[in-house]
Amino acid sequence: VAIDTALIAKHDSFVDARLGVRERFLTLRAGSGRTVGVLREPLESRKALGWVVLHSFADEFVYLNRAEVTLARRLASAGFPTLMFHCQGYGDSERIDLTPRFATHLADSEDVIGQFTAIADVAQVGVVGMRLGATIAARVAERTGVASLAMIAPIVRGDRYVRDLLRTQTFLHIAAGTEEAGSVEGLRRTLDSTGSVNVRGFSLERDVLAEIEAIDLCADLTKLEARVLLVQATRTARRESALARLSESLVGVGASVDSCVVTHPSAALFGGKNFQAAGTDRLADVLSGLNEAIADTVVAWSTTGHVPAAEVSAQ
Amino acid sequence: VVNVGDRIRGFILEEVMLGDTTRELKSDTPLLDGILDSLALSQLVGFIEEEFDTVVDDADITSDNFRTIADIERLLSSRN
Q1: Using the 8-state DSSP alphabet, how is residue B19 labeled?
Q2: CA angle, corner A251, sides to A248 and A252, nearest 5?
Q3: Of A172, A234, A266, which is closest to B38 when you measure between CB atoms?
Q4: pLDDT at A118 over 70
Q5: Is the pLDDT of residue B79 over 80?
Q6: Chain B (17-56) residues lying within 8 Å, Cβ to Cβ, of chain A
């Protein structure tokens, strides 16, 4: 049987002429196996800096994908080659059987960043992540010494993040009238007795959650000589004290930090489901405006070195 | 001055019911019978924590505290 490699090569990419972007599908080495990546490159005027998007954890991995793709396409359209990939244990990875952990996210990401400059033909690397992906990006930036780091609504305290994860399951039970099956305290008891707990369909293991609960980003980072963009996504323009502390800590370990608040009515849902009922017979993406505003902010900062304004209001 | 109940009512009307004026939303309207789903509950707790500068404890995340706007008001007043 003859394999038509030219035909295969012809279909390994897609050109979006409107955005001026080519999307190319790659096989990458990531930790304990291979994975699939999507490299988005500008058709013209390529910048020296390229971005690697580091995805988040559990169901946020699914729900933040639209925001990550929006950002990656915008960055590529503005001239910055941008790579997205799946860590081991997620959809397109070879080791789909593995339980993803914070440590495997870090190792897989480091591995991919090591390949990125050659793949994307860039001189400098930036890493960007959202929610726990931003926390991972900060730790990876410290370990790899990349030039730029963009953190979108980062998780500063892992114990708070795990609490919120468990709460989302409790909200499901309350709304379904099966509360006795899933109070936060009940879920913690289940976690202790069985070693795992179900949160919105994801089985989360006790030791994986314990690893995340131990995260205290302000204390964990010890040296970070990078340009950092810190974006807070919130309903109101009130600055979160946790992010203010993180900004101070980043400066304290050597980073140059720009902060920005992006406000949106649905910002509390960032990291959750995009689609909500809008009337009796249709759903609407309630986060698209926020995703666009975040992308605008990161692109502006990447291009000019400044945030467009201290506060960005998105509709 | 807009009171606590009106601020919560305003949030639910605007952000959860998306301005649907065909349904009444009184202090004793059952919220868990078709108004608040799990996402809306999550959004509401986030709003309460931010708007009233408070932290809702895990033990307070119960249907008894979120059945009506009056229940939520009682929860918040018990914390002051």
Answers
A1: T
A2: 85
A3: A172
A4: yes
A5: no
A6: 18, 32, 36-39, 41-43, 45-47, 50-51
